[in-house]
Amino acid sequence: MTFPGGLRALNHRDYRVYYLGQLVALSGTWMQTVAQSWLVLQLTDSPLRLGLIGTFQFAPLLLFSLLAGAVADRLPKRRLLVAAQSTQAGLALVLATLIWTGRVQYWHVAGVALLWGCVNAIDQPARQSFVVSLVGRSDLVSAVGLNSAAFNGARIIGPAIGGVLIARAGIAPAFALNAVAFLVAISALLTVRARGAAAPRGTTTVAEEIAEGVAYAVRAPRVRLVLGLLLITSFCVFNFTVYVPLLARNVLGLGSEGFGFLMTALGVGAVAAGLSLGWIGTAPPSLGTMALALGAALTGLVTLSAARHFWVAAVLLAAVGFAATTTTAACNTSLQLLAPDALRGRVMSLYTLVSGGVFPIGAFWVGAVSEARGVSIAFLVNGLVGLAGLGALMLWWRSRAPRS
């Protein structure tokens, strides 16, 4: 069977196996994300402490992404992914056990979140740069679109299952099922023939290799612009693990099931974006399309500040999910296609640094504003700040375009 159009990356056997395994793992991770947020609110009843969990989980991306990118270029990527995902399965089981025994405390959740982030700092650049080994450059746009659809399809499946599971059976099973999901993904990785071979080793040190990757990004104006768009998206928009539980509980008066379905609505829009990206040609969307999509996502945040009904919030979250995912998936594809093969791990570590490493700062900010003024004000403030930043970035690009 030959897959057409945006599904063409599935014509590669290794990618099909990898894709199905990662879809299962991502569904489990999103289920755990819902459970973790709900657990923190049960333990602390504090928006600020909920935001701090995001800070703990994503701070290692800020600190170690560049080092992890150099490691990803030096070692076989499949081996790195198996090691990272095995560790994540173990961490999920630790929290499940603590909850089942009634011993879980806030510091346990924070500690696991911090360790999870350290593992994720290695997993992300390895995962991003492994894809080209599975499909080649010609089908990379399709693969990134499908990866985005899988990530956000998991955002539909995981929270929906997680919300119902928490309401029916409690929080611990969500963590246990996530561990099982990772075992499925690891089994799939072990059957993939591609190894994601390391780049040829020279005489340079890790520090010199990191500097080489950063220097490439600094010299390339288009790379700088793409990273700027990603920075605004990461800081202002992708704080949903803080935004959505507070919107569900404090504004709409919903329980865990309502929270899960709001996350599902967000995922529906994001999946649609990923599939739409996959159906374009071999080139990523234009810079203008990315900027327009980001502007739509930020406008959606401003509108969400006035949402007081479930279905209004659900529709707006779906729209924001579509626009924000279009931006991030297009940024991912652009960077992978712009990067030389020998630098891809390091360039994608910059993607990880900006997309995930900025999150702890944004999560703390959203948590602090929500604690002081409520989540509706947090939506409004971040939407307006993001629109101002987008305007400044595009003015910079227009001012230097004739000299590009």
Supply the CATH class: Mainly Alpha
Count of individual domains = 1
Which structural category fits the helices and strands?
Answer: mainly alpha
Distance between the termini: 44 Å
- Stated plainly, the CATH topology is called Growth Hormone, Chain: A
Unreliable spans = none
Q: CATH superfamily membership, which one?
A: MFS general substrate transporter like domains
Gross CATH architecture: Up-down Bundle
Element-by-element helix/strand order:
HHHHHHHHHHHHHHH
Proportion in β-strands = under 5%
Work out the helix count. 15
User: Whole-number radius of gyration?
Assistant: 20 Å
Number of strands: 0
Main β-sheet description = none
Helix content: over 70%
What global shape is seen? globular
Characterization of the model:
- Helix 1 runs antiparallel to helix 4 (106-135), helix 2 (47-74) packs parallel to helix 4 and helix 9 (240-251) runs antiparallel to helix 15.
- The termini are far apart.
- The chain has a single domain, classed as MFS general substrate transporter like domains (Growth Hormone, Chain: A, Up-down Bundle).
- It has 15 helices and no strands.
- It has 404 residues and is mainly α.
Q: Keyphrases for this structure?
A:
single chain, 404 residues, mainly alpha, Growth Hormone, Chain: A, 15 helices
